[in-house]
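F.,

This is the one I mentioned.
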């Protein structure tokens, strides 16, 4: 059973116009607005089946963890979403981008010396250098 046309239109609007809204939030909004239970996985599946790709990165909520609290991580590169637009990049900011279309968003973490990338992206870009380090 497909989604009603108004719900499809609303999904497209939420998906493309608000790229930081998570699939979970989209599912909740659609469920409330249309009175039809919609799951996050239904939204992900719909987007995948229709070849819909998001620019930027959706900020899905972290899952509640059971059991022991996570150990604090030792110092190392932090995973951060690529959220820095080109015009906001400063001298010394990492130039790595995963964007293939407008708006191009860059890593923006501090570069390592004599490299255009931060440590994590230098490792991804130059695997031989990462192996020898
Ligand atoms: Zn980087």
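My design for it:
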């Amino acid at each position: 059973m497909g989604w009603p046309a108004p719900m499809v239109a609303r999904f497209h609007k939420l998906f493309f116009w608000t790229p930081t809204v998570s699939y979970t939030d989209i599912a909740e909004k659609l469920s409330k607005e249309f009175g039809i239970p919609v799951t996050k996985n239904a939204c992900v599946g719909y987007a995948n089946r229709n070849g819909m790709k998001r620019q930027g990165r959706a900020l899905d909520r972290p899952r509640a963890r059971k059991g022991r609290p996570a150990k604090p991580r030792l110092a190392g590169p932090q995973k951060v979403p690529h959220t820095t637009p080109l015009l906001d990049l400063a001298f010394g900011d990492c130039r790595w981008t995963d964007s293939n279309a407008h708006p191009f968003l860059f890593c923006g973490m501090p570069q390592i010396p004599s490299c255009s990338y931060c440590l994590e992206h230098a490792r991804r870009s130059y695997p031989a250098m990462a192996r020898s380090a």
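Residues 23 and 44 are 7 Å apart (CA to CA).

Talk soon.
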